[in-house]
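User: I'm new to structure prediction. If I give you an amino acid sequence, what do you actually give back? Let's try with this one:
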Amino acid sequence: MDRTQPITLLVCALGGEGGGVLTEWLIEAARASGHAAQSTSIPGVAQRTGATTYYVEVFPVPVAQLGGRRPVFSLSPAPGVLDCIVSSELLETTRQIGNGMSSPERTLVISSSARSLTTAERMVPGDGRADAQRLLDAVRSFSREHQVFDMGAMARECGTVVSAVMLGALAGSGVLPFSRDHFESAIRGHEDPAKPSRMTQASLRGFARAFDAMHQPREHAMRVAQMLEGTDDDALPASAPALPDAVRSHFPPAVHDILTLGHARMVDYQDNDYAALYVRRLQQVLQAERDVDPAGAHGFAVTREMARWLALWMAFDDIVRVADLKSRSSRSRRVRREAKAGEHDLLKVYDHFKPGVPEFAALLPPTFAARLTAWDRRRQSQGKSPWAVPLKVGSHSVMGMFSLRVLASLRGLRKSGSRFAEEQALIERWLKAVLDGAAQGSWDLAHEVALCGRLIKGYGSTNERGKRNLLHVIDHLVPATQPPERSPQARAQAIAAAREAALQDEGGKALDAALVSHGAPPRPVVAQPIRWMKRPPSQQATSR
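Assistant: Good question. You get back a string of structure tokens that encode the predicted 3D arrangement of the chain. For your 544 residues, that looks like this:
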């Protein structure tokens, strides 16, 4: 260690994670051990819940050994000269690496593998998440040594915040010339060591877990290897009930895993009959795929993709589904865990709803639903806002939970509702397009149409827009009779281009351009009501 230069640390934390408290603990530990230290905070841009970095410098020689001299510290970090970067979020780590802060010859990177999606990632209509594999590769390539583990999960298990875990990781890394007692004393503060508070006990548990994790290199190396290979246990899907043997025997093993999840989702969403409908639809796809690919050279990818996206579409969100999910005991446990509420703590949870005519009409028969929808459209044509009922339901109360369970029990009305009929009709059109693609002798065409299920996501206007885009693509690019007449392979490429364009932006400009470039008409303009708003009377300033 260079005894003439400070040890430089960069702490990266998101809003509410206690980055400022962590910095105070570091400064307090330095003072308790007799070392000079300085910290500065660098507010970041408003992404996720806000991101703030803290820069800490610690002089490696105790003040008592400096002979009256005092070190001079810097107020901001310099790229490439950091000794350590500790971060609570993987993308935030790579962001600092992208800024040049980490040096492959010098910097130790300690990062959490947890992700908190940015606003830009959430705005993408498709899967906008950053590739975790590329993020981990960047950490590995631009660090002298790296330690990556799930700090968020460790903090939740210990009932504390992630800052305590980050401090334990720093202490266990040995980058700072402090003993473990100095760090733990900083956490305790002025409390009696014999009677620490519950918050302090939780912080010490998180600190100890991270400290021990850093001292188990063999176990940690195995953990990193699993993450780099994409086999992290936390990323595995939740267990689902076993697939019935009668269903399993009709499908190849390559489809069993995702079929099991889809079948369980249908039973949980509606009933066994609905799951049977899901299986019958997939059997049609499997037979069509076997006709065009008898040897299964493509691993039955068409059936797998249909099993994935068909399960998501058939389990569409409505007020019954929302009420069911909001009133489950697993949700209550998760909320208590996230709020860090103890067994004897009182926790009040309020859910805000604003159901409107579409939500109520969805459960009504088509005739009554059409009348109710027409009534709301007439109101909107008169300049009024869409009719809706704002609700605030306390799911912690008996009446609040009772109302949610009553609404969740209405799943029996779903099959007779207007939306159920509409969704099933649209699903059948998509299914027929997949079968038609296979009937034309092109596995690629059927596969690309199956992948178009990605366009159906979200709720409200986002969901409606996705369905319109899907129908427009399959109506104009799948049929062989649509001009200009092209080979099935060319139409498969056109569908792939249109699908990716539709996922680029919500406005659909890229989709329209892709459609036109492949000989299909652009999407029709959707009529939007024009609302005339009265100008409020001007307020005349009065003089006294």
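You can read the tokens as a compact description of the fold. Here is one thing that stands out. The radius of gyration is 29 Å.
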